[in-house]
Model the fold of this input.
Amino acid sequence: MGGNAPLIGILALQGDVAEHREMLQQLGADTRDIRSTADLQGLQGLVIPGGESTVMDKLVRRFELKTPLQELIGSGIPVLGTCAGLIMCANTLTDGIEGQQTLGGLDVTVSRNAFGSQRESFDTELTVSGLDSPVAVSFIRAPIVTQVGDGVSVRASLPSGEIVAVDNGQILGLSFHPEITGESRLHAEFVGRAASFSPVS
Ligand code: GLN
Done:
Protein backbone atom coordinates (compact mmCIF):
# COMPACT_ATOMS: atom_id res chain seq x y z
CA MET A 1 0.00 0.00 0.00
CA GLY A 2 1.00 3.62 -0.21
CA GLY A 3 1.61 3.45 -3.96
CA ASN A 4 1.13 6.25 -6.45
CA ALA A 5 -2.50 5.50 -7.22
CA PRO A 6 -4.34 5.42 -3.92
CA LEU A 7 -7.79 3.88 -3.79
CA ILE A 8 -10.31 6.53 -2.81
CA GLY A 9 -13.88 5.71 -1.85
CA ILE A 10 -16.60 8.24 -2.62
CA LEU A 11 -19.78 8.01 -0.58
CA ALA A 12 -22.23 7.57 -3.44
CA LEU A 13 -25.68 7.54 -1.87
CA GLN A 14 -26.47 11.11 -2.90
CA GLY A 15 -24.73 14.30 -4.05
CA ASP A 16 -22.07 15.41 -6.52
CA VAL A 17 -20.27 12.08 -6.73
CA ALA A 18 -19.44 12.29 -10.45
CA GLU A 19 -17.58 15.61 -10.13
CA HIS A 20 -15.36 14.23 -7.36
CA ARG A 21 -14.78 10.98 -9.25
CA GLU A 22 -13.67 12.83 -12.36
CA MET A 23 -11.30 15.11 -10.50
CA LEU A 24 -9.75 12.29 -8.47
CA GLN A 25 -9.23 10.17 -11.58
CA GLN A 26 -7.61 13.12 -13.37
CA LEU A 27 -5.22 13.33 -10.42
CA GLY A 28 -4.28 9.67 -10.92
CA ALA A 29 -6.25 8.12 -8.06
CA ASP A 30 -8.34 4.96 -8.35
CA THR A 31 -11.90 5.50 -7.17
CA ARG A 32 -14.72 3.35 -5.88
CA ASP A 33 -18.30 4.41 -5.26
CA ILE A 34 -19.42 3.45 -1.76
CA ARG A 35 -22.94 2.08 -1.43
CA SER A 36 -22.47 -0.75 1.06
CA THR A 37 -20.08 -1.83 3.79
CA ALA A 38 -18.32 -4.22 1.41
CA ASP A 39 -17.17 -1.16 -0.55
CA LEU A 40 -15.14 0.12 2.43
CA GLN A 41 -12.51 -2.60 2.28
CA GLY A 42 -8.98 -1.50 1.45
CA LEU A 43 -9.69 2.19 0.98
CA GLN A 44 -6.92 4.74 1.46
CA GLY A 45 -9.11 7.84 1.34
CA LEU A 46 -12.76 8.77 1.80
CA VAL A 47 -14.68 11.55 0.05
CA ILE A 48 -18.02 12.71 1.38
CA PRO A 49 -19.48 14.83 -1.40
CA GLY A 50 -21.70 17.86 -1.46
CA GLY A 51 -25.42 17.34 -1.67
CA GLU A 52 -27.99 17.46 1.07
CA SER A 53 -26.83 16.40 4.50
CA THR A 54 -30.33 15.63 5.77
CA VAL A 55 -30.83 13.09 2.98
CA MET A 56 -27.29 11.76 3.19
CA ASP A 57 -27.70 11.15 6.92
CA LYS A 58 -30.94 9.22 6.39
CA LEU A 59 -29.44 7.10 3.61
CA VAL A 60 -26.24 6.38 5.55
CA ARG A 61 -28.36 4.99 8.37
CA ARG A 62 -30.78 3.14 6.09
CA PHE A 63 -27.89 1.44 4.28
CA GLU A 64 -26.32 0.57 7.65
CA LEU A 65 -23.20 2.49 6.78
CA LYS A 66 -23.11 4.78 9.78
CA THR A 67 -21.09 2.68 12.21
CA PRO A 68 -18.76 1.24 9.54
CA LEU A 69 -18.05 4.76 8.25
CA GLN A 70 -17.41 6.01 11.78
CA GLU A 71 -15.01 3.11 12.34
CA LEU A 72 -13.26 3.87 9.05
CA ILE A 73 -12.88 7.54 9.99
CA GLY A 74 -11.69 6.42 13.44
CA SER A 75 -8.98 4.34 11.77
CA GLY A 76 -7.32 7.56 10.65
CA ILE A 77 -8.15 7.38 6.95
CA PRO A 78 -7.73 10.72 5.12
CA VAL A 79 -11.14 12.30 4.53
CA LEU A 80 -12.27 15.09 2.24
CA GLY A 81 -15.72 16.50 2.97
CA THR A 82 -17.22 19.20 0.79
CA CYS A 83 -20.29 21.18 1.82
CA ALA A 84 -22.83 18.54 2.94
CA GLY A 85 -19.72 16.35 3.40
CA LEU A 86 -18.30 18.91 5.83
CA ILE A 87 -21.58 18.82 7.75
CA MET A 88 -21.37 15.01 7.92
CA CYS A 89 -17.82 15.24 9.32
CA ALA A 90 -18.64 17.81 12.00
CA ASN A 91 -18.91 16.67 15.61
CA THR A 92 -21.60 19.29 16.27
CA LEU A 93 -24.34 20.67 14.04
CA THR A 94 -26.35 23.56 15.42
CA ASP A 95 -29.26 23.79 13.00
CA GLY A 96 -29.95 20.33 11.67
CA ILE A 97 -33.49 19.16 11.04
CA GLU A 98 -35.11 17.19 13.84
CA GLY A 99 -33.20 14.01 14.52
CA GLN A 100 -30.42 14.82 12.05
CA GLN A 101 -27.14 13.11 12.90
CA THR A 102 -23.61 13.48 11.62
CA LEU A 103 -20.81 10.95 11.37
CA GLY A 104 -18.43 13.25 13.22
CA GLY A 105 -14.68 12.96 13.47
CA LEU A 106 -13.83 16.62 13.05
CA ASP A 107 -13.97 18.69 16.23
CA VAL A 108 -15.89 21.63 14.81
CA THR A 109 -19.35 23.13 15.11
CA VAL A 110 -21.13 23.77 11.82
CA SER A 111 -24.18 25.81 10.91
CA ARG A 112 -25.87 24.51 7.78
CA ASN A 113 -28.09 27.50 7.04
CA ALA A 114 -25.50 30.15 7.55
CA PHE A 115 -26.11 32.34 4.54
CA GLY A 116 -29.34 34.18 3.86
CA SER A 117 -31.17 33.56 0.62
CA GLN A 118 -29.44 36.44 -1.15
CA ARG A 119 -26.09 34.78 -0.69
CA GLU A 120 -27.32 31.23 -1.01
CA SER A 121 -25.00 30.51 -3.90
CA PHE A 122 -22.01 32.46 -5.10
CA ASP A 123 -18.62 32.04 -6.70
CA THR A 124 -15.55 33.67 -5.25
CA GLU A 125 -11.79 33.59 -5.02
CA LEU A 126 -10.47 32.46 -1.70
CA THR A 127 -7.07 32.45 -0.08
CA VAL A 128 -6.39 29.02 1.41
CA SER A 129 -3.43 28.48 3.70
CA GLY A 130 -0.92 26.10 2.16
CA LEU A 131 -1.79 27.11 -1.40
CA ASP A 132 0.30 29.80 -3.06
CA SER A 133 -2.47 31.54 -5.01
CA PRO A 134 -6.22 31.99 -4.48
CA VAL A 135 -8.69 29.26 -5.36
CA ALA A 136 -11.79 29.89 -7.48
CA VAL A 137 -14.67 28.15 -5.77
CA SER A 138 -18.46 27.84 -5.64
CA PHE A 139 -20.53 28.15 -2.51
CA ILE A 140 -23.94 26.47 -2.87
CA ARG A 141 -26.22 26.70 0.16
CA ALA A 142 -22.98 26.44 2.04
CA PRO A 143 -22.44 25.68 5.71
CA ILE A 144 -19.98 27.64 7.83
CA VAL A 145 -17.86 26.57 10.74
CA THR A 146 -18.77 28.49 13.88
CA GLN A 147 -16.39 26.85 16.37
CA VAL A 148 -13.09 25.09 15.96
CA GLY A 149 -11.71 22.65 18.55
CA ASP A 150 -8.16 21.85 19.57
CA GLY A 151 -6.09 20.34 16.81
CA VAL A 152 -8.22 21.80 14.03
CA SER A 153 -6.72 24.55 11.92
CA VAL A 154 -8.60 27.11 9.88
CA ARG A 155 -7.43 26.90 6.26
CA ALA A 156 -9.71 29.62 4.84
CA SER A 157 -12.19 32.29 5.85
CA LEU A 158 -14.34 34.63 3.79
CA PRO A 159 -13.45 38.35 3.87
CA SER A 160 -16.52 38.75 6.10
CA GLY A 161 -14.94 36.37 8.62
CA GLU A 162 -16.88 33.13 8.21
CA ILE A 163 -14.67 30.04 8.46
CA VAL A 164 -15.07 27.94 5.33
CA ALA A 165 -12.15 25.47 5.33
CA VAL A 166 -10.87 23.44 8.27
CA ASP A 167 -8.31 20.70 8.62
CA ASN A 168 -7.16 18.46 11.46
CA GLY A 169 -4.45 16.79 9.39
CA GLN A 170 -6.72 13.80 8.66
CA ILE A 171 -10.05 15.39 7.73
CA LEU A 172 -10.16 18.34 5.34
CA GLY A 173 -13.57 19.98 5.47
CA LEU A 174 -14.61 22.57 2.89
CA SER A 175 -17.81 24.65 2.78
CA PHE A 176 -17.34 25.11 -0.94
CA HIS A 177 -17.03 22.90 -4.03
CA PRO A 178 -13.61 22.93 -5.71
CA GLU A 179 -14.74 19.87 -7.72
CA ILE A 180 -17.31 22.04 -9.49
CA THR A 181 -15.00 24.86 -10.54
CA GLY A 182 -12.20 22.51 -11.59
CA GLU A 183 -9.88 23.70 -8.82
CA SER A 184 -7.82 20.59 -8.16
CA ARG A 185 -5.15 21.61 -5.66
CA LEU A 186 -7.08 20.67 -2.52
CA HIS A 187 -8.02 17.32 -4.03
CA ALA A 188 -4.35 16.85 -4.94
CA GLU A 189 -3.35 17.49 -1.34
CA PHE A 190 -5.93 14.95 -0.18
CA VAL A 191 -4.77 12.36 -2.75
CA GLY A 192 -1.22 12.86 -1.46
CA ARG A 193 -2.36 12.07 2.07
CA ALA A 194 -4.26 9.01 0.86
CA ALA A 195 -1.22 7.71 -1.01
CA SER A 196 0.69 7.40 2.24
CA PHE A 197 -2.16 5.85 4.22
CA SER A 198 -2.09 2.10 4.80
CA PRO A 199 -5.58 0.71 5.32
CA VAL A 200 -6.22 -1.30 8.44
CA SER A 201 -7.62 -4.45 6.96
N1 GLN B 1 -27.07 23.01 2.83
C1 GLN B 1 -26.83 21.67 2.36
C2 GLN B 1 -27.01 20.67 3.49
O1 GLN B 1 -27.55 20.96 4.50
C3 GLN B 1 -25.45 21.50 1.76
C4 GLN B 1 -25.38 22.10 0.39
C5 GLN B 1 -24.30 21.49 -0.46
O2 GLN B 1 -23.73 20.44 -0.18
N2 GLN B 1 -24.05 22.15 -1.59
O3 GLN B 1 -26.59 19.56 3.35
Notes: The CA atoms of residues 146 and 160 lie 13 Å apart.
